[in-house]
Amino acid sequence: MTENKPIERRSPLYQLHEAAGAQFTDFAGWLMPVSYGSDLAEHHAVRTAAGIFDISHMAEIRVEGAEAAAFLDYALAGKMSSLSPMQAKYSLLLDEAAGIIDDLIVYRRGEVDFLVVANAGNHDPVVAELNSRSKGFEVSVVDESDLTALIAVQGPKAREILEATDGLSIVDGAQSLADLKYYWSTSADFKGEAVFVARTGYTGEDGFELYVGNAAAADLWKALLLAGEPLGLIPAGLASRDTLRLEAGMPLYGHELNRNVLPAQVGLAKVVHFTKEVDFVGRGAAEAGPKEGSRVLVGLASEGRRAGRAGYELYSGDQAVGEITSGALSPTLGHPIAMAMIDPLFAEIGSIVDIDVRGTRIPATVVPLPFYKREKN
Amino acid sequence: MAEKSEFKFTPEHEWLQVDGNTATVGITDYAAEKLGDVVYVDLPKVGSKIEAGKVVGEIESTKSVGELFAPVGGVVVESNSAVVETPELVNEDPFGAGWMIKVEVEDESQFDSPELMDEAAYKALVGE
Fold this sequence. Notes:
The structure holds 2 protein chains of 2 kinds.
Chain A: E1 9-10, H1 14-19, E2 23-27, E3 30-35, H2 39-48, E4 50-54, E5 59-64, H3 68-75, E6 88-94, E7 100-110, E8 113-118, H4 123-133, E9 140-143, E10 148-154, H5 158-164, E11 168-170, E12 185-190, E13 193-198, E14 207-213, H6 214-228, E15 233-235, H7 238-247, H8 283-288, E16 296-302, E17 313-316, E18 319-329, E19 336-342, E20 352-357, E21 360-367
Parallel strand pairs in A: 1-3, 4-15
Antiparallel strand pairs in A: 2-3, 4-10, 5-8, 5-9, 6-7, 7-8, 10-14, 11-12, 12-13, 13-14, 16-19, 16-21, 17-18, 17-20, 18-19, 20-21
Helix pairs in contact in A: 2-7, 5-6
Chain B: E1 8-9, E2 14-19, E3 22-27, H1 29-35, E4 38-42, E5 49-50, E6 55-61, E7 65-69, E8 74-79, H2 81-85, H3 89-92, E9 101-104, H4 119-125
């Protein structure tokens, strides 16, 4: 049998990244920028000014039809029918055992029109599950991933940058950027092309995600960068995106989330709508909850500069009590941070465990998540 | 800094600059770029004996951990405290201020090992 190695896919912005001297990495079969020189500088730019990310590898799935809301209420763990038009919600796609197939953002674009955004690495299972769960509903599930580019502008200067971008304007009657709340979206126009603008992100900062057709993506990227450069905007890659989301305590599929983890173990029970009047996939198992003694997600902080990394084990004395799911030296805080799955006995804030850092035990303290929270003005 | 043409390179993306029976060791610009911003460097103590091919130090970036291999066997006669205190020197100047250790060897024939490449061979290896 021959292995079916996925072809390396390229974003419509690939050539711009290459010209900018980006270093690339294979991410879920996509050749994406990991950094443009210094991942630390990119991280700090997002915290202090702004960064622009190409996340066109993300999967966009359009769900439309008279029963779109009812279908999503059944297919996903959250209650999508409660969203107002242009509102967004973080949600989960569960399997029957309440294992996490993917974490998603759902945008209600209209009364019967939703956009489901999934992780690139879960594109195939998410599309397959949504299709199979749609049977019996008056709804169409259309995979628009190949048509759609996604640009994120993240950081305290993000709004100012979008407002200064030549050719980008909010559609008449749509919500202005100034009035757009977190997890709400609006409609914009860029030189005749429709741009769907959402105040969402994966960095812990204020910011926007701009969905646009592939053909206009490069021009939009250039216009945003041109407007943003005087304000400190720089292109940022996946390396800084990872340290930013880690500081913000946001889970990453394949690290904190997977099929063997129930929402309640990773602090996401709040995303599951247990009082939903309709049935949804995974409900029974989610309600039953994880087995007693199952590991739970915590934040860990330690001193010095040696970080625990994904896969490193946690000990209390000789007893293995957990495992790190993501870890790095926090660029903002200056000390190592990690998320870890840990035995509930050690999950209390202030509890101290040892990280086995390649044979050296480094003590770490359980701390509340997120590690970093922006000051809201 | 000496001309790079005087350097020798290892398949583990380290460089050596030989002076008599002593070699200065660092990692290449290619390795530094692959690692990303270096935030932590752990080096062997001065006076410690190291064995060729063994891991003797660690170079961590925000995103990953790299190992420092001993390219030759000998005694560590100097260890770059500046790079331990200021790990970004590895990215800023990998062939100069970002050097790691100086190793004194008993057997200088190690420097002629076929494992060690000249600049042209190393460039070919990393596809430059």
